[in-house]
TrEMBL record:
Signal peptide: none annotated. This is Membrane protein. Belongs to the UPF0382 family. It comes from Halomonas salina. It is found in: Membrane.
Length: 131
C-alpha cells in the first residue's frame, strides 16, 4: 500500500480527535473555566478539519501522486501537533507560556494550505478537474 505511513497518521489523528473531543465533553466539562474550554474545543475543531483535509489529499494522491502532496501532509501534521497540542496543553495546564507555540502551529497549517494551492497549480492541466 502506497503511503501506508500517511494513512496511519491520518487514522491516528482521527482517533485522537474523537478522544480529545470526548475527553473535553466529559472529563473537562464543568472543571475548566469557559474560556479554557473554548480554547480546548478550538484545538479539537482544527484537528478535525485538518484530519479530514489530509484524508482528501491522500485520496487525491492515490489517484494522482504528486511530490508536493507530501509537503502538504507534513505541514498539516506538524501544524496540528503544535497548534492543537499547544491549545490542549494550555487549556488543561493553564500555563500561558504554551500559547507562544500556537501561532507557529497555525503558521504551519496556513503553509500547508498554500502548499496545496501550489501543488494544484503545478499539477498537469489535464489532471485538475478531471472527471
Amino acid at each position: 500500500m502506497r503511503d501506508r505511513g500517511w494513512w496511519m497518521a491520518v487514522a491516528l489523528c482521527g482517533a485522537l480527535t474523537v478522544m480529545a473531543g470526548a475527553f473535553g465533553a466529559h472529563a473537562l466539562n464543568g472543571t475548566l473555566a469557559p474560556r479554557l474550554m473554548t480554547v480546548f474545543e478550538t484545538g479539537v475543531r482544527y484537528q478535525a478539519w485538518h484530519t479530514l483535509a489530509m484524508l482528501g489529499v491522500l485520496a487525491w494522491r492515490a489517484a494522482r501522486p504528486l511530490a508536493g502532496q507530501r509537503w502538504v501532509l507534513g505541514l498539516w501534521l506538524a501544524g496540528m501537533a503544535l497548534f492543537s497540542g499547544s491549545l490542549y496543553a494550555l487549556a488543561i495546564s493553564g500555563v500561558k507560556g504554551l500559547g507562544a507555540i500556537t501561532p507557529i502551529g497555525g503558521g504551519l497549517l496556513i503553509l500547508g494550505w498554500l502548499a496545496l494551492a501550489i501543488c494544484a497549480l503545478r499539477a498537469p492541466h489535464a489532471e485538475v478537474g478531471k472527471r
